Amino acid sequence: MKKGLFFFMAAFALTVVACDPEKKGGSDINWEEVTVDGFYVAGPATGSDKIRPECVMAAGFNEVDKAVREGMYEKYIVLEADKDFYLLYNDGGKKTKYGATLEEFVTPLEEVYTDNPEKVLKGKMIEGTDAPSMKVAKTGLYHIVLDINKAGDLKEPQILLLDASDFGVRGGMNSWGFTSSDPKVTEFTNDGITFTFKDQELAKNGEFKFSTGNYWKVTLDDAGKVKAEVSLAENMTLNGDNIKVEKGGLYDITLTFKLAQGAFDKSFSYTAVCTKESTAPENMYMIGAQWGNWSWDDAGVAELVPVWGAPGYFWITRYFQAGGEFKFCAVKAWNGDFGDNGNNIKIDDAGFYTILVNGNDNTFEIKPAEVYGIGNAVFAGGWDFDSAVKFQEEGEKLVITTTGAGELRLASKVVPSAAIDGVTTPNGWIDWWKTEFIFFEDGKIEYRGAGNDQARVQVEAGQKITLDFNAGTAEIGASWSWDDIDEIAGPESNTRIKGWKYNSDANTLYFLFRIDKTKIKGSSDTLDWDPYIYIGIDTDNNAETGEGGGGGTMNGCEAQVCIFPWRGTKEAPECVNGEDANGWIKAPVSGSSLGTPVVYGEITGDWCYEEVRIPRALIGATAAGTIAIDASMSWYPLGRNEITLN
Question: Considering the entire predicted model, what is its pTM?
């Protein structure tokens, strides 16, 4: 759960202290104390001159591939300021000292360092008796990460130190922001540290983690191959599930560190004690003439959606009929129901409305609905309601058309008349991801509510999204229909492609081919071993320029597309999404593949219908006008055809 977390860090003070080159600590190591295999953190900075098993580092967990990485090690340990420490490695009796010259590393503003701390200490690992000892300028709890490059995929072995003295909580209590210990920890010792977080409000089944600072990971190398997690999850592991509480209410939470041998769960423990159980309702329902016909047993009773991070608050977007009356209740019964000063609520004018209910005091607000497509990729809008693209009314449904391909994000805009602490933004509305929803292949609208991030849905450009909130369903498809486009008959000589259609929008060329289904059997049958469709595209509509295309049947093409969609059963072609090897796009024709077309196949009656979508940007056909195309299937050409682009 990571929302809006970038490069903020409370006072961070890691200062490098130069080591005396004549005091390298190599000759006074008592190697007899090194008995356990692995890396030890040793030296006076650990609080002891002895080499202790508690100082053995844990196997490193690489956040990049979510797995333990060979040759990567991690350790949380208190280091004292201005005192030496170094690393000792025992590998089956072969014992080696490691050190580094640590330097302050300011995190660059690059994608590979997203969600990283602002500063760390880094250095190149040096092996051998003369390896320099290391120091820190401030006593505190440190997260040490090192990689000796056993995989051979880094430039060099590296070590990184992150000041972990400001451990905090993040989760439902702060919208996955960051809350420091109160009071602040000022004394650090490996014998025990306790971080305290009082009066943390969590909803029922609320979740949280412990984290070092207001970030999520720390990157070891510029290539981004090795990243360490900086949050502790359930069972005090780095890669576990969020910690979950059963009851809603106020919690006193503690995190205790005491240096121990082994994985992180050996050094950390926590408590979460509910000091005041919440009285906020967990559910909210709407009943009325339009919503269950005043019967609590009716499936038409509408369930409101919890507002993320606001116990007792709920919202709903619906199309209301004129004059219909309704009420709310936290249970499906006439027990505590409420409305407008004891009366039913009535909306005079039909239309879309969003209602926010505060179940803590049984109040509500009704406003005209505003539903948005969120994000730059799909809607060319922003990540906030002030610049996002709004759905438009189409009867009792809401519609929007995508302008690009990418990740679909949708949200209702909910604007309380008074700010809700920790929930509303400075603009006055509830942050979009707290009233977010999505739909999947089954067409059912799924609300995020008080839960975690939902699974992502990918969409293409030029698709029309239709929301039916009352039915709880959604549809996605082209903003136009093939049924509205006349078919062009294929020539009699083409016994395979019997007819075809085309269309275009600002981003995509669309073709639909009607094919004799007996001609599409795969190579397991002897018939039609090569059922490819070639599309040659003359983007400048000049047969004197370009190259041969269309499977050798046409000259003057600047681009060519090949599809071979029938790699599944012979009964029906696969329906693929561009991720699979279903063809290629070339521009120029003799060049390498620039990408794959999106292909959808369907058999109806005697015919196979094959739809092909080609990004205009890849073939250079980006402006409106006339171009020439040709298509062939297994050397049966359609012939040159001029089409007009939208």
Answer: 0.60
